[in-house]
Predict the structure.
Amino acid sequence: MPAELFSIKMKNKKAPVVTIPRLSFYYRALMEKSDTQFVSSQELAELTGTSAAQVRKDFAYFGQFGAAGKGYRVDFLKNSITRILGVDKKWPVALVGVGNLGSALLSYKGFLRQGFHVVAAFDSDEEKIGRELAGVIVQNIDALKDEIKLKKIKIAVVTVPQQAAQDVIDKLVRSGIKAILNFAPVRPRAPKSVEVHNIDLSIELERLAYFLSNSPRRIFGAH
Amino acid sequence: MPAELFSIKMKNKKAPVVTIPRLSFYYRALMEKSDTQFVSSQELAELTGTSAAQVRKDFAYFGQFGAAGKGYRVDFLKNSITRILGVDKKWPVALVGVGNLGSALLSYKGFLRQGFHVVAAFDSDEEKIGRELAGVIVQNIDALKDEIKLKKIKIAVVTVPQQAAQDVIDKLVRSGIKAILNFAPVRPRAPKSVEVHNIDLSIELERLAYFLSNSPRRIFGAH
């Protein structure tokens, strides 16, 4: 095991949670720098809308990536970030709820690009069960546990209606799921060992409406 | 103007940004309490997964809602929250980028429930222009500015590919849009007077992958 990798592993735990999305942004910026060997913290900062000091601080959590006076080695940095983020692996994903949002996510290409493969989809609607969508056959939700265990799935995307969400998440937890991306407009309960991220589109819109309703200059958009 | 409303308006500016999504959660909890006249901060806390002290603190930013010993009046609280959030109004919304995510959002019922009406949709793809989706005819992106001004639209949802995002957001800003919900995987530049919220699905998945890759007990989900 090379020394750098070891130092990444060792230092990993100190990084605050807000660093992780920034690593994703650095990674995307680096993807566009395939023509150069080195990149400076200043350049990375400009490409991602942060400061050079922040870039250096973020990388320092994971080890020593820079060469004095030269900046960071692009290739090494890219590999390190994919390893830190865990996107150098293939992640099998289960999707529960094949409504209009669920269907869209099934064919969303951004998932695949990052190594996320939706390998199972579930619904309780007889109309949807048995249908094929983006190469995946929709299964009865009763098959959830067996399928998740069989395919060793650890990540689930939840796109069911509000009333069904907690029940589905309980089922996923009992089936061994460890990370959930939840789109249902609830704050579900889950054990601490399971990481749940909520994306609530209505709440995002309400925040925007709040901004427009309360902005200093009166805006006459709503009627 | 009743005294309560005045006090809401006056105190409004002090509320920290994290309070707003909690108001959305309180509101949903209140929707299920239509059978009772009063609700306690403890009850609201349990329904929304926060503490009674937090509930009281959040409402205190906007004025006096509680009656000593009785808790909050459900009806008054509901009306106040809709007014604070600005969702008592109808918000015309423009959607730019009618790919699979954009199409799903066009027919997403959660928007309508909160008073958000997608009244215009745009794309640059000749194949899509002229088609009707969820009652809206997809227009050429060249018509963006005129249509936004004509329909007095202040909110836009952006679901275009990464490369097109900044250009589209510049166009929206020039057309008078004041709030943007951006799904394109970039951190777009925009003037301070325009509120941009980014929802980046890939980054959410990368955060989950990071969690799984770095969780204390080794998880053998990825291969």
